[in-house]
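Q: Give me the 3D complex with magnesium ion.
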Amino acid sequence: MRTSKYFLPTLREASAEAETVSHQLMLRAGLIRKQASGVYSYLPLGYKILKKVENIIREEMDSAGSLEILGPAIQPAELWKESQRWDEYGDEMFRLKDRHNREFCLGPTHEEIFTDIVRNDLRSYRNLPLSLYQIQSKYRDERRPRFGVMRSREFIMKDGYSFDIDQDGLDLSYDKMFDAYKRILSRLDLKYQVVEADSGNIGGSHSHEFMVISEVGEDDIIYCAECGYAANLEKAVSKITSIKSEEAPKELKQVDTPNASSIDEVADFLNVLPHNIVKARVYTNNERMFVALVKGDQKINETKLNTILDTSLLEPASEEEIKEIKSEAGFTGPLNLKDVTIICDKEVEKMRNFVVGGNKKGVHLINCNIGRDFTPDIIADIRSAKEGESCTRCGEVLSSSKGIEVGHIFKLGTKYSESLNATVLDKDGKEKPLLMGCYGIGVNRLLAAVIEQNHDEDGIIWPKALGPFQVSVIPVNVKKEEQLNLAEDIYDKLKDKFDVIIDDRKERVGVKFKDHELIGVPVQIIVGKNAADNQVEIKYRQSKDKLLLDAEKVVEALD
Ligand code: ATP
Ligand code: MG
Ligand code: MG
Ligand code: MG
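A: Here is the predicted complex, encoded as structure tokens.
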């Protein structure tokens, strides 16, 4: 490739709205351009690298036995109505109508579509296990798009879905994906932590998040360096952000897609509330869990948690109670069998002195907002109180860090196969609902996360697997014939063996150097005044080491 023929609009500075290093560098290195809030184009260099990320994911999915398909971005409302998520999904869903007034959405996720595919064409347990995936655009009208492609409104996700006849099968399928995700992140040289997103359930977790360690991460994770226990802490805090007063149920529809929750997390949540709360009711529609805090008989407030508590710790709610809960919350959607009530006196008792120590100034229940009511120092208190705690598994002191959620895997069980009636015949010839798992990884977000972990003041330092070119050849002064000729000569020799770019632009050499550092080509061959002696300089992007070398030795040095 020749720089003179390439489209590489680099910038000295990024726009002020780019808050994170990865956002700034992706703009400056000419990888992306913004089209609208949370909507981006990838330019040639950016798309080239994005495809490398995709291919790593694709290779690992293929080798784990998953089959690639391509679903539609436009999805019919009927499917979402069948699964009862059409109303539930809320404002994050982009909705549209066709010329006949039929309703559709731009898919924020694809459980319904994949379940529909198998329910029509899968008949027998003999065809199981089956694992399908796609790499495709997702659309979510995020309340706050930010950090460039890290939280955008159109983004590419690899989403996969597994189908099994029984729980053992699902467990196996899940473990395979778990391992594949680990391999993907290792191939990208990422430092990451897998966290339990639901630790409450007997027989292991239902859900894991893959967190890339980074200060710009929006999640807090807590982990034990000794035994490897790790969990998402931010949940406890983020629950607080979604406390709302009377209009809660409406507001709740706008919150994120589900994160699992455990009884401990409920307790954690209650923990930061004033200690006069004596009872909490937890109830769920299919997907999300709401907590109504009850003092005596009066509902004080409620917030969102998400599904799946350790039900062994809960008392099922009676018909009466469910009715009451629904009317209290003004909630008209369907509630299912998991509707439960828990009495949390003990938890509250145990917790109430833990963080807040009673009614700390600024802590109250009505219309709580992070920032306003839960100021950064209160949140910091919560974190540090947690951080110093000892691990429940091994007793070592826990540490905490910030993480970027790049992947999320989930055992769905029969949630979608039941609502969409996706069954197969088991070996006794009986219809059985499929057991499903779902597995998501954000392609663009991964790319941004790689940059967050790999850069310096001059630009991006790509891990080996992602470098946009392997080598660049830079003639210092293209007007000097011996320099240009030698550079062209070296370029010719390298181009069959390496992905190489020659910078044949009539630019000042300072500009060229800056560009190659910025876009992060790992090795630069600089052809300058020593060209007269048939010598060139090799410069390594990461270490910045330089080496003077005979031109003949260049190929050898790169091997
Ligand atoms: P978040 O908590 O950051 O909003 P999520 O939990 O809503 O993410 P999932 O539904 O679990 O996301 O989707 C799987 C993966 O898709 C995420 O782990 C993330 O890598 C990616 N992803 C989700 N939302 C976005 C977005 N708005 N922009 C870019 N990538 C995203
Ligand atoms: Mg989300
Ligand atoms: Mg999340
Ligand atoms: Mg998630």
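A quick observation: The pocket of magnesium ion (ligand 3) is lined by residues 256, 259, 405 (CB under 6 Å).
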